[in-house]
Hints:
The complex is a heterodimer. Chain A is an alpha/beta fold. Helix content of chain A is 32%, strand content 25%. Chain A is globular, with a radius of gyration of 25 Å. Chain B is mainly α. Chain B has helices at residues 2-7, 18-47, 52-64, 67-92, 100-117, 123-152, 156-176, 221-238, 240-250, 252-257, 262-278, 282-289, 300-310, 315-338, 344-376, 382-385, 390-396.
Amino acid sequence: MTDEGAGGGNSPPLVVLEGITKRFPGVVANDDVTLELRRGEVHALIGENGAGKSTLMRVLYGIYPSDSGRILVRGELVKIASPRDAIAVGIGMVHQHFVLVDPFTVTENVILGEEGGARLDVDDANRRVADLAEQYGFRVDPARPVEDLSVGEEQRVEILKALYRGVEILILDEPTAVLTPQETRDLFDNLRKLREAGRTIVFISHKLDEVLEIADRITVLRRGRVVGETRPADTTKAKLAEMMVGRPVLFRLEKPDVTIGGPVLRVTDLRGEGKLNGISLEVRSGEILGVAGVEGNGQRELAETLIGLRRPLSGTIEVDGRDIAGRNVGDIRHVGVSYIPEDRHEQGLVLSMTLWENAVLGRQNDPQFEAGPGVLLIRKIKALAARLVKLFDVRARSIDVKASSLSGGNQQKLVLARELEVDPKLLIAAQPTRGLDVGAIEFVWKEILDQKAAGRAVLLISAELDEIYALADRIVTLYEGRITGEFAPDAPPEQIGVGMLGGEKQPVAS
Amino acid sequence: MTTEGLAAPAAIVRSRPAWLDTLLGQALALVASLGIAVLAGAVLIVAYGESPVEVYSSILEQSVGSVDGIGYVLAIATPLIFSALAVAVPFKAGLFNIGVEGQYIVAMVVAAWAEVELGFLPGPFLIIAALLAAMLGGMAWAAVPGVLKVTTGAHEVVTTIMMNGIAVSLVGWALNFPLHFDDAPEGAFVDLRTNNFPEQGLVGDLGRMFGITQGAHLSWLLLLAIAASFVVWFLFRRTRLGYEARAVGASPGSARAGGASIGAVQLKVFLISGALAGLVGMQQILADRGHLPQNYIVALGFTGIAVAFLGQNHPIGIVFAAILWGVLSRGEVALQIGSDVPREFVIILQGILILSVVITYQIARRRLSARQLQREGTVGELADAAAPSDRERAREGEDRESGAFAPADDRER
């Protein structure tokens, strides 16, 4: 393999991972993996959840010891037994979940552990952090407390922390999973600056569009093995997906041909605190209504009001002709509404509970799971859980493990299984594929289309236009808590973009 | 003892089910922390110029060396079981009832009133009436902070502390006025206390059957306490309320989205806690004393917090923790009789025990979660399950149910 690309030309690789094998009981997370990182490149590491990308980088960062293999940095054999060792040889890592002290300022967080001496010169520290931020075009105010920052800004602080420690190789574990599209663009600008300055970035992701945009080289892992290395120019999204999953992946699924029936959900002039400023919409049976919009324009409020987690100030919400506005969640679920929350950890699962306990959440009042008044019929709940796990292919050792032990994709499958098993009349799906890899996305999409095929109404709220296009029969745009446009499923993205940014109502095409 | 306790978790065989792992881990952690406490105590004893072996063996001799000793220990444990359960129940739902103290004090007043006023009832009925009155009294006292919490969001720690203070004054008022001692012989010196309860209104002696001296006052209430711990176990493992309470405690958002009403669950849990707290004082008024004196035993509610912690909020663990606490408390007597070590030594020992429990349980939990990660993380993505920092774990809510007494501030609403 010759290399004359954007990165280091023929210079020797900066980091070499050679024959890394990492076993966990019952599984080989990394199987003889060899990987080279060059100076000044963005190296994408892609693969499905569980493919071993994070494990490999955790070995490099000294979190896990490898069972065999060796690591060379700048041509020298190094032993990395802890993150401290990793930082000492210039390797830093930003985890998916940030590790910041909320009440501390940006500067205090950045210098924490590197204060240098007993006396802390705050002004000087602020200046140094500001200089560092400016050097790479990071927009962040060093004097602000972290608790006031957005997620994107917090991430910049994490990256600054690593840079402050003189890190040359920066590992980012799924950095865009928590970002809005705008924040992702900002991050990519920062990454380009870092690359220009000769830093090396390992970009762990399963979002293929992003990888194709930012990476210089791409390494694909599947089941712990390297299945290929390529460059964006030499590949396509479909090819990458096939390498990751091991079979062709469909990015456009066949929409089932269903006669669209009468209205199931009818929302009239819905207003609520904050972000709902008079929303009216209708979803009919057999129809998927896609709500597109830049995040933070009332999507979350809309979903939570519909399922009863928030009280509307005014307006009506009718499901099958019954007004459910202001009712509690239990009643609304009873009418036949199911809910896939945008944050499955906050509103979907109780992570410290077992799979079977999670399987019945939302149906704990159902008489079929009652052994007596108020007493749960554990046997039946376990049977339900076993059925759900099997039907939706939730990969778990048993239904007695905690939900926290599942991967994100499997957690989402469990939520989906639970919410769909009740045969809802209306499904509210908020960002249903957030954080999932391509294989899992395809699975979720199929399930949602199956709901349509079964004649149910689906309200799909998504920030991913791709997802809206792939599923919706009709598209509305949400901007500052109002519906700003209604579009046919084949309307060009530019038109929908106008609606997403608050443009006036467009006539329905076709 | 210590080394054995610390080393053993690594030796646990891989094929054991997770719950057994957890149980063994906790048992070993307890043994280890006992070891630490005993060692630290030994240093103190030596400083007093006595032999640790002698002092410890006299403590054991006094507490578990005879059937009478065991009777005393179990009688001490009885109210602590109720008290610790009253702390553990709301804790599972993410609430901290620090007002068990006030709740049992009020309950004693109400039960004393029932005993005095309903003296015409035959034995079992009078006892049942008194116990019910106590539970209702505890519930009523717990209802105030419960309702405030649910309706206004007032923090239960603050409100329950305030209610404790009011409860103490309430006893003083009750003993001076409505429940004033008026059966005393003419001209005799009168303590501030209620009238003696009717003979048939006292809880029968359980110890006699086992040849335990009546002086231990081991009563049927012990069996009621053990039954209560099974009821609590059942509540959390088998009932909808218990299920919803655990969900509310571990993830309020998911519980709400699952149709649980957080306010209703919290209020119910608080009422159950109050009812359990109501039974704390029954051992002393219905078995030990036969009346409610002004110098009733205080701080059982606060000791309950320590015992609940020692038992890791597990209803069965609490029973054993209460007994262990009883052994140490009973040991005080031995110190008074046969050594120069002051009786406060036992309090120090109990304090060290709690501290070392904090440490060893934390170590055990880390080891266990590492094992669990290795085992269960293999199926899903390892990265998802590996929690390198406490903050991350807190975010994901993993540790919330596990029993550490973290401040409950940011859990609700």
